[in-house]
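pasting Divergent polysaccharide deacetylase for the record, 267 residues
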Amino acid sequence: MRIGLRLLALLLTAAALLGEARAAEIAIIIDDVGYDRPLGLQAAELPGPVTLAFLPDTPYAASLARRAYRAGKQIMLHLPMQSLEPHPLGPGGLTLHMTRSEIRATLLADLASLPHVAGINNHMGSLLTQNAGDMAWLMQDIRQIGGLFFIDSLTTPQSAALEEARRAGIPSAARDIFLDDVREPAYIDRQLDKAIAIARARGSAIAIGHPYAATLEVLRRRLPQLAAEGVHLVTAGQLIRGRQAHLMRAGTGLAADAHAAGIKARP
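structre below
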């Protein structure tokens, strides 16, 4: 009976640890930066620690990345990947027919084209991200480079990118909401509200938008209000680190309670 009560106490503690109240965090990523300088400048000047994802070898990517970094923004490589639709990839893209060495060489060249890169997410990729073998190659290369995180833009529900990133031990997460599939302020406001609701319910959320005039207008208006709404704007990297720290605390707490209750872990 005593062991049963201890086990019950452990389970209750586990639930508390996993669901403990913490400040809701949201990361806003602006994809596709690099082609349009005026809109890119507006993105770089958004209030707060927004994350900007730059397409490689685009006309203004390097200069905008340097400016955005000085303005306190986090910089990501928006890595083009082959889509199910015949959309042009642009420079620096990964395709299904590439060999492992070609994938690595392209990744290294893309990273070399941008300063201050902290992480990577995929541009398009509804075809390539479904291929677990190619994703495993890519994630192994990212791990060997070191110091980078990965965010699956989740352009297909069949994506294997996040699973392979985690398998490779890369700090990683997946997109929760696209903000601007419809380029209208009212729609973007509703999508941002959904992202905030996810952050409150789960502790954090990742929202992806683009350097569209409507998106930038909404974010200029809404981002300064987030703190008053009980939501903390963070970079994508900070959000991932926060999730990892939360899981580690929960795991440590569970191990300590199991030891105190005299419950042995399985070998």
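Residues 1-5, 7-20, 263-267 have pLDDT under 50 and may be disordered.
The chain is about 45% helix and 20% strand.
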